[in-house]
Amino acid sequence: MKIGIQHVLAAEENTPGGELVKAWNKLLRKNIDLVKAKDTQVTFHTPKWGLTGLDPFFYTYLHRLNDSETLHGLIRIEKNGYDVAWPMCWFDPVLREARQALDIPVVGPAESSMLLAMAMGAKFGIVTISPEAAYDMEEEVLRYGFKERSVRIRPIPATAEEQLVGLTDAQHEIECFKEVAKELIADGAEILIPGCTLMAPVLRLAPGAEDKYPNGLTEVDGVPVMDVIGATVKMAEVLYEFKKAGSTWISRKGFYARPSSQALDMAEMVLKYDRGGCWTD
Length: 281
Prior knowledge:
Blueprint: E1 2-7, H1 16-33, E2 41-47, H2 60-65, H3 67-79, E3 84-88, H4 95-101, H5 109-120, E4 124-128, H6 131-144, E5 150-155, H7 160-165, H8 171-187, E6 191-194, H9 199-205, E7 219-220, E8 223-224, H10 228-245, H11 261-266, H12 268-271, E9 278-280
Parallel strand pairs: 1-2, 1-3, 4-5, 4-6
Antiparallel strand pairs: 2-9, 7-8
């Protein structure tokens, strides 16, 4: 089974930005390896065009402009023979749109982790990357229909720069997460969800803080911390196995109905792609 992961963060390969993405990929791969099936393979696709830092993702207007690049990347992933596509961002960018467009399963970290959280506890709380991002996440929880199972969304008290440092030294980010996690527990959270695919592997693996957290941060005061990356991998494997076995894996009635040939003909201009493409790792 082959999973194609489409990054939403853009960078040229042999640049400081590209090296940052490679460090992130290394951590993500370690996280994925903890839970994946033996024959599951993962390839990361990084766009050369798009948002080039964490800060723009704090704002809906900016990361929405980035969405077309993500969708085109997911379409290329299917064309290149992958079995599952995965946009690497907790906001699940273009998840529903990609499910209309593709004939392979498409999984999102937010949807996957919240679905699993509801099997693990009655209520979950989400820690987001910034106060600005919390508004978008509140809408996302509502759109998925999970509002009654979510206690609150709170931002981590760490800057974008401090969160990037977590890729190599997780100590400060872990302490910041624990601080806000205790507030969510007081709100009634029984499961804690790191609402960012950069934050999630940092907490799960605790790079640079392994002496204090040899198994990563898996709980706060007895409340489990969701393995967001692991949850998404397992959702990908389940949907792939359903499809492989000939079982129903998606509904084409209603929201995920495929566009008609007439609609596709009329969309010829927007379906064309003429940007820089991706590099893989």
